[in-house]
Amino acid sequence: AKFPTNTAHPAVAKTAAVYATLVHGGRERGVFVFAVPLRRPDGTVPPGVRIVPAPETSGLQIDYAAVLLDGVHVPYGAWLRDGAAIDAAGAFHDPAGSPAARLTRSMGIAPPVWRAVISASAAITRASAGMLLAHSAGRTTLGRLAPRRPLTDYRNQQEAVLGALAAAYALTAVAAHVTEPRPAFPQTPDQGGPGEGPDTAWAPWSAVDRDLALLKAAATAQAQETVSACRVHSGAPGFAAVERLNAYRGLAHAYQNAGGDNELILYDTARAMADLDRYVPPDPGAGPPDGGDPHSPRVWLHLARDGERRMRDRLAGRVADALRDGGDAFTAWNANLVLAARTAAACADRIVLEICAAEAGSAEAAGAGAVLRLHALNVLERRAPDLLNEGAAPPGLLDLLWEARRRTCDELAPNAAELAAAFDLPAPVTA
């Protein structure tokens, strides 16, 4: 059975791309894709297919159903074999070479999906930031501390609004980065090319394109965090915004698992990092540069790279020690999953900061430097426990980041409307 699927509507014909293991000659030959009709135009289902509609949900609202396949006849022509074949003599041939390689080939649809998910994450973050600004602008408070004070004079609301705008700019830069044409990569035994990612243990996604899968995980997590913050800071209207903020949050939540589970992507990324499998630890360089001024992109990158490198080294050491002491791979990794996830997340944040630093330094984004800096400061605040734990930053880091954030917000606050206007959101979104 497969759940969830969007197959419940009784009047919509559906054909599924079914991923299934091909067994031939008593041996598993790998996971292939098969085109299987699930519902005919007249609403009936073929023999062996059962579709069980699911109750409605307030999350991502589509026609959810469970699909059960039992004894379904699949004709040879429905096998999307990608060069594989069973010849006239009954022999099986697959140019992929192995079941593991075939699985990676079959998952090759993932990169376009990830690019779309990253772009959608950026879009809902832009919309959410615009909605929060529209809710906050012109609103006054009645608190006794300062009656009739504008809501955005309060740091918590100001930093929420500007932080959402900053996250939207950052994810937009990430989306532009992953959707721009890529040069052809030389395929060498050491590095491979796109679609020749590292070996995986938890799921096949990272073997298709490790960095793109990792950015999908980072983008959906950032989108959900930002949308949720916008919802909270919009008060009752945020709670009631079923077709906007709540729907955006549902979409971001859904794609934490859909298109490759985020946690499993993090674990496989961490495993590749620990094994140095098509991964080179970043060089933080001598530092901290620029006197450690957090306004400097060079400082963001130094801290992110140094923290990532130290975490990778510690993770690799702990796994190696466990194996040396007689533990098996499961035991060695199972004891270090928290560190593994945080190490891979550090890698993701470093890649995002590199994209932001490059964008902030480009001529086209001359006016976006401060807003991207704000996002970098928020990322470093999120990473602060790891940076301090690893000794990559000295005590007092948070005070330094908070002060830099206050100064950056003071710089950005007068231009918040212009920053949001650049998103060119449809009027109904911010009405």
Automatic annotation (TrEMBL):
Belongs to the acyl-CoA oxidase family. Residues 149-273 form the Acyl-CoA oxidase C-alpha1 domain. This is Uncharacterized protein. Residues 316-426 form the Acyl-CoA oxidase C-terminal domain. GO terms for biological process: fatty acid beta-oxidation using acyl-CoA oxidase; lipid homeostasis. GO terms for molecular function: acyl-CoA oxidase activity; FAD binding; fatty acid binding. Its cofactor is FAD. Keywords: FAD, Flavoprotein, Oxidoreductase. InterPro entries: ACOX_C_alpha1, Acyl-CoA_Oxase/DH_mid-dom_sf, Acyl-CoA_oxidase, Acyl-CoA_oxidase_C, AcylCo_DH-like_C, AcylCoA_DH/oxidase_NM_dom_sf. It comes from Actinomadura bangladeshensis. Gene3D superfamilies: Butyryl-CoA Dehydrogenase, subunit A, domain 2 (2.40.110.10), Butyryl-CoA Dehydrogenase, subunit A, domain 3 (1.20.140.10).
